[in-house]
Amino acid sequence: MKPVCHFDIHYNQFINEQGSLTQPLPDWATKDVLVAAYQDMVRTRVFDQKAIALQRTGQLGTYPSTLGMEAIGVGIGLALDKDDVFVPYYRDHATLLKRGYRMEDILLYWGGDERGSLAGQPQDFPYCVPIATQCGHAVGAAAAKKIRGESNAVLVTIGDGGTSKGDFLESVNVAGVWQLPVVFVINNNQWAISVPRNIQTGSKTLAQKAILGGVPSVQVDGNDLVAVYEAVREALKRAYHHKGATVIECISYRLSDHTTADDATRYRRAEEVSNAWEKEPVKRLQQYLHQQGAWNEHKEQALLKQAQQAVESSVKAYLSTPPEPPEAMFDHLYAQMPQGMEEQLEALSSKVQRMTAAGKGGNSHG
Ligand SMILES: Cc1ncc(C[n+]2csc(CCOP(=O)(O)OP(=O)(O)O)c2C)c(N)n1
Ligand SMILES: [Mg+2]
């Protein structure tokens, strides 16, 4: 017997956990760009903490934290072009903030108000909560782009657990055989709720799952903003130049519970989490910028203050947004409402009117 195929998976990192360079930075990674990215990462973290506090005090629904995964979200957000299509999953708050969402939009969404998912770039998709189904939507959108001869791309995100699902594997297959302009970014945060990465799949890397579709792939340090941005940029360029799909596996760690409905202390060791804190993305970029003389404690305090003020004013805007009327649940479902549904809408409207007259209507986000 002789081997008929060879595959290698390459790993990339620029800034290590001590904040030192492991190779020269790409040209785009100027101090200004990195300071701006750092500020976005800090803003995301401050927002995230507040969202958890709002849930704990009964003012927000279940919320999935992005703690420890800020470099992935911001890296993607910086690399994407306005005209690309972003197909997010539920942990992508950082990217959505870069796509034009306001913090109050994100709070509205997780507070159960669908208007929160109507923000951002008009062609982007809303948060996807069903695991991996977003991959099918992404290859559909990418196929449409290819048929129309458009030269921008689609980027879809997915968790490590999601890559075990047929939806992901089938989508990679189609993306490969049809040479679609789509980028799959895997947020490998080591856990799928309580299922650890090592019992999730027999694959040594998640990047190698791309091989099944003949799609090139790379693994990067997902705690290194530069490595994420560089990989996404290169993959998008390939897509723009009609060279097909790419899979990027970003190695990160979910420092938080899975969501606010979870208690991760019940299934993972404190030591594992404290080790992961040593590698987290915000601190390492801060250390690098400090070493370069591009950041200091004074700037840090000013940024934190500004971020907290922005978050507080978004909370005010969220909590004071009047709730939608119940009839709004019929909006955005059909371009033209089917007759049966019009009847349901009329029935609901008269019920709402009766309840309002009897003083029983109304609710609030708080
Ligand atoms: C189709 C489907 N099955 C199950 C679930 C329940 N569920 C929610 S999150 C999750 C784990 C996902 O883990 P991973 O893909 O690693 O993403 P992460 O949450 O770690 O970012 C599961 C099984 C779901 N939302 N959708
Ligand atoms: Mg995961």
Task: Tell me what the structure shows.
- This protein is an alpha/beta fold and 366 residues long.
- Helices cover 43% and strands 9% of the residues.
- The strands form two sheets. The protein has a six-stranded parallel beta sheet, with helices on both faces. A two-stranded antiparallel sheet has the order 5-6.
- α1 packs across α2 (70-79) and α1 packs antiparallel against α10 (281-291).
- The site of magnesium ion has 6 residues, from β5.
Explain briefly what this protein structure is:
This protein is an alpha/beta fold. It contains twelve helices and eight strands.
Question: What key attributes describe this structure?
Answer:
single chain, binds thiamine diphosphate, alpha/beta, two-stranded antiparallel sheet, 43% helix, binds magnesium ion, 366 residues
Can you lay out the helices and strands and say which pair or pack?
Layout lengths: L10 E2 L18 H26 L13 H10 L5 E3 L5 H6 L4 H8 L22 H16 L5 E6 L6 H12 L4 E7 L2 E2 L2 E2 H4 L16 E5 L3 H16 L5 E6 L18 H8 L3 H11 L5 H23 L19 H19 L9
Parallel strand pairs: 1-7, 2-3, 3-4, 4-8, 7-8
Antiparallel strand pairs: 5-6
Helix pairs in contact: 1-2, 1-10, 1-11, 2-8, 4-11, 5-6
Bound molecules: thiamine diphosphate (TPP) and magnesium ion (MG).
| Cα end-to-end separation | 68 Å
Please report the number of helical segments. 12
Mean pLDDT: 96
For the largest beta sheet, what order do the strands appear in spatially? 1-7-8-4-3-2
Number of strands: 8
Tell the overall outline. Answer: globular
Bound molecules: thiamine diphosphate, magnesium ion
Q: What does the main sheet amount to? A: 6 strands, parallel
Proportion of residues in extended strands: 5-15%
Order of helices and strands: EHHEHHHEHEEEHEHEHHHH
Tell me the helix content. Answer: 40-55%
